[in-house]
Amino acid sequence: MLLELGRDGGSINNHPSKLWTVAAHSPVEKRWNELTPRELYAFLKLRTDVFLVEQGVDETELDWRDAEPETLHYWIESPADDGSTELAAYLRVLYDDRAEHGDAHRVIGRVVVHPAHRGEGLAQSLLGRVLERFGTEPMLLHAQSYIAPLYARVGFEPFGDEYLEAGIPHISMLRKGTGRPGAALGGR
Predict the structure, then answer these.
(1) How many other CB atoms are there within 10 angstroms of residue 68's CB atom?
(2) d(CA 72, CA 27)
(3) Where are the domains positioned within the chain?
(4) pLDDT digit string (tens) for 50-79?
(5) Rounded CA gap, 138 and 121, in Å?
(6) Is the separation of the CB atoms in 125 and 99 below 8 Å?
(7) CA–CA separation, 132 vs 185, rounded Å?
(8) What is the CATH number of domain 25-175?
(9) pTM for this predicted structure
């Protein structure tokens, strides 16, 4: 696994400057037809709050790709102050019949972390879960340029020129698949 979990299952000790705390729940993975209305609302609300409100993205957020049969939704919930849970981080994995670049049919996107949970390693935890499942396959993503180092740490390499998408600098990144099960996370 990408992250070292402490004995209590909640501490990540892979960052030299601080001890990260990860939500007690492990990442959840579901397809569209498995989502509850509450789950769907929670990740659409988080994506809207961050991408549209915080970042001012003026592109269409709801693109119907969420509902495709091959799309997988991953998220982590965290305990809220009132005893319930709140969505802390989310991403989705699309499958394109025709690869956009090379032979990468899987595309990671909509990676988002709630502002109150940034710096806790949650996006890295979600990426780790995706790599456990699909690391043998080539994968593509379009990263906001400032966050590209996060993806580089798990094997994504930038290609092409930086470009503006929705007014934000982006870079396309490819992670070549390992081609063999069990080697997706550095040769385990």
Answers:
(1) 15
(2) 12
(3) 25-175
(4) 998 999 887 777 899 999 999 999 999 998
(5) 23
(6) no
(7) 7
(8) 3.40.630.30
(9) 0.81
